[in-house]
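Quick entry, no commentary yet.
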Amino acid sequence: MTKKVKDSLKNTGILILYSLFILGLGFIAYRIGIESATRYEEFNVGALLMSMGLIILSATVMVYLHVVIHELGHLVAGLLSGYTFMLFRIGSFGIIKEEKKFKTISFSMSGTMGQCLMNPPESISEVPYRLYLSGGVLANLIVSIGSVLLYAVNPTDYLLLFAFIGLTSGLMNGIPIGFNDAKVLSKLRKSNVAQDQFFQQLRWNGQFIRYNKTYSEVGKEEKIINAQEPITEQFNIYTKLIEMSSLLEQKQFEEAYQELAELYDQVQAVIAPYRSEIIREYLYCTLILDKGNPQLVKEIRSNRLFQDHLKRKQVDVYRIRSVIAYYCDNNRVEAEKLLSQAVDHLDKAPAFADKEVNRILLNHLKDIMAF
């Protein structure tokens, strides 16, 4: 099956899932709204509008509740599999464990609403992964089934709405389409190299978060690249991003620029969370090295994923916004303000490695911008 056919099937599957979600949500909302509006002797438009507003608010809250349930499912399944807690995030708010203490962080990843990272056990030869990766979907489905059973006792359509959102969340993560738990599970089942990359990624995260390891301290001999997959494949690109961060940490901007330029040419094949990082750091190197033509800079700044990324309140985003203000908009006042905000958010970075590379880059910007 060609890549074009696979992409077409994937997009069709995603479209079907979203269509079913909207239709199901609309049907349940219609039931609740009509029931509310017909409690009066005559059909009441005001009651219908108020009911629809409440439904929208309720659905939004329920979506986030199922994100929490999903990530808690990973947490419980990980603990049952012998993993140890590392990071738990909902939206941009998260908690990490640094050695023996917990700390709040502020960051988010494009294409994700939550995240639960755990450190795999070291004491066994074959590390389990199926339950840990399936835990989120199982949690959504179990809670949804429980809501349906409660509906039999207390028939309110809000329980149906909660169950429906949970079922949809389970399907969206349980069918291997795009960047989700089922897709990762599928990769790991098919390839021992992918398993090695996955556990290496988790252990690296543990070292970056818990043990103050920097990106440049990761040796080249440690990095696993799956030669059977393109460099844009999820696990391969993560390893490349570790290399990019190491080059930036060492202020080897020319080398980082060359590597990022090659990745940028293939960036549409990269999953959204890593795509935004490639675009950000490519633009960063392009501007500070004065290598970008106006058309390239305009293309990057108009990228919708990148524009969404720029709305996030985290150190690396404030850093790139400061560079844009200084080099593109010729606004020194705004650039200095954003640089100060980046410094203020430095301690909220998710890992020591992130803090270190950003600390070095921010100090470098202070020098070259003469602030």
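second:
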Amino acid sequence: MKPLFKRLFSDSIAFAIANVGNKLVGLLLFPVFLRNMEQVEYADWGMTNTLTLVVTYLSMLGTDAAFAFYYHDVKTQKERRGYLSATLFFSCLMCLIYIIASLLFSRPLSMFLYASGTKNQWVISIAIVATLGAIIIQHLLAYSRYQHRKWFFTIFSMSYVIGSSLWSVYFVVVEKQGLYGVFYGQLIGQGTVALVLLFLYRKELTSRFPTQYFKNLLQYGLPLLPTLMVFWVMNMVSRPIVYHMVSPEKAAVYEAAIRFASVIALITAPFQLAWRPFSISIKDREDAPRLYGMVGRGGLVVGSLAIMCLSFVIEPLVQWVASQNKPEYFESYRYVWMLSFGTILNVLHLIVGVGLLIHKQTRTISHAFMVAAIIYLSGCLILTPILELWAVCIMNVIAYLFIIIFVYWQNQKIYPVDFRFRSMLIYITVYLCSMAGITWIQIHHWPHLWIYYVIALFITIVAVFASGLFSINQLSRVKKWFN
């Protein structure tokens, strides 16, 4: 098991290099956009991202997850190239359809989406064209990831993020293009890298592949589409809810909180990139269930403690990034930890439901997400007029807790894994109480905050061992492995 842990850890670190660079770029440019865009424009940026994410899901239709499975399931390089070509062709064709639709219906779409109406009429079309480049990049870099071309993946991941960001800064700051400038930059940056990757992978792509590949991809991927759409509902529809039920100004504050919460992706995103191919590649080993259990428990502890440590410095960090010229964004720090913890729980469902993915029972995961979406949406619509931003944050945690409980329960029926799930729930309860206490004392500006931070951290760490999630001996053994 030690070599397997090392392999998962090394893969995650390799992908983290690209992810850390990308997130740092995003964090550094965050104050630039914050200070050079009007508050309503900043909220409109979030609304546009909401639309482009759903376009991405509807273009791929789960074929990216299906390609990850079939890449490791088939035996020959010819078959892998065929699946790559089929996946890329299908996703690009679907995205082209949405580009044409956005051009035909740009006016009513902009009036529905933005408070400013037709002022941003062509932003949607520009953003979807840029999304086409992002889809090509995502598929080809996924292929390089499965080939273990880690440095290739790292270089091109950072290239398109840095390039897009720099071009966006130019159009926003120098050309004063506002919201349009953000997506002009993405269009140039993502389009350029997509063309370069297509040229480099031209010998890996083929125009001849069995139509059965499309059928296989869609049979595996389509059941995941409700999961992806519900993920969109729980992560993106909260923006229009706040935008229209509270105010565009509060939506801008919420968008800022989301940007800060994305810092936790420095941990989760590299792990997610490494986990899917890794978990499938070891599925036939006898010790695989034991490793899945340890990874699930370890991921919960590491991720949650990272969020707690971030919460200790989040208030001054927000004030520094926003600067004294934008005090209207200062309150966004309050919501960061809940949004970040939702990300941890989302990653956790991939681990506690690993057996469902191995046995192609993706419909079960979709059912969990569909029920969670109803819970989330209902709670947001009822509570947002009363609790405003707190409503969407609280419902985010509740919905994801439901998902991991349901997915775990179904997974144990077909692929039992000892996750010590009761201990996980006890730890999560203690953790949520500790974080709620930290937020309370921050809002009320208690003196000597560091004392309460130390107490909360101590209680949470004690809960790891008191709940039975891990023992001291297990912790020592894992430490020796990594040493």
